[in-house]
Design a protein that fits this description.
About 50% of the residues lie in helices and about 15% in strands. It has eleven helices and eight strands. It is globular.
Length: about 250
């Protein structure tokens, strides 16, 4: 087995472009299959409450078409739980969700909602789904995720990436230190560690270098780069940077 982190490609924003005009193109399922052919280790798709990008039909088609795992991102609602139990994807990642946000703004507050989330994820685990929780690099949230029975945490790298993009390098370095420390801590509890949100060619290497990180989920940047390079070259370059970082 490779020691390199797996790369999950999020295809949500192919659907965003499709939905901006309506119709069937560009097709996110076609993008997922291209990503798979390019060597992506998995596909991520977030079915939002307002269906602003990925649709229910997209999930059905992805489940039928993919041979790599589908990571189904969703809010912790009864509606989404029913959809996940119907399709039983390889992985379910619980994320916070607000209608007014452009993208996921932070990690799930597991510590504040621990009892409900413990009961929420139990049937998903019983159905064979690997349950992941998208959280900030915070010890209390990691402890809570561990207590409720999550198998995986995905650390939110958005604050680190934003600080880098805005030239706030002291904040960037502090965020990176927190991510590194909490990766180690989560691993010590027996949790599998993933990371994602906002990662680019410029920011991926330091996170990919963490020995505990087993998977990186990247979407918006890769879809943007695909406009200029094509999806396959964009994915290959990201994989190259991830592998160089881990070496």
């Amino acid at each position: 087995m490779s020691d390199f982190p797996r790369l999950g490609v999020n295809i949500d924003h192919v659907a965003t472009v499709r939905n901006a005009r309506g119709g069937a193109v560009p097709d996110p399922v076609r993008a997922a299959l291209l990503a798979e052919e390019a060597g992506a280790d998995g596909i991520t798709a977030h079915l939002r409450e307002d269906r602003r990008h990925i649709s229910d039909e997209d999930i059905e088609r992805l489940m039928a078409a993919l041979t790599v795992p589908l990571n189904f991102e969703m809010a912790a609602t009864d509606e989404m739980q029913a959809i996940a139990l119907k399709h039983q994807p390889h992985a379910v990642c619980l994320v916070p969700e607000k209608r007014e946000e452009r993208t996921t703004e932070g990690g799930l507050d597991v510590a504040r909602d621990e009892n409900r989330l413990a009961h929420f994820i139990a049937p998903l685990r019983d159905a064979g789904c690997r349950v992941s929780i998208f959280i900030a690099a915070d010890r209390a949230q990691i402890d809570a995720a561990n207590r409720i029975g999550a198998e995986v945490i995905e650390l939110h790298t958005g604050a680190y990436c934003d600080a880098h993009a805005e030239g706030r390098f002291a904040d960037r370095d502090a965020e990176l230190t927190a991510l590194a420390g909490m990766s180690t801590y989560a691993h010590s509890l027996g949790l599998e560690v993933h990371a994602g949100h906002g990662l680019t060619y410029e920011t991926v290497a330091p996170v990919a270098a963490f020995p505990e990180v087993k998977e990186l989920n990247i979407g918006h940047f890769l879809i943007g780069e695909a406009i200029f390079l094509g999806l396959t070259p964009a994915i290959h370059e990201m994989q190259r940077l991830i592998q160089e970082a881990r070496k």
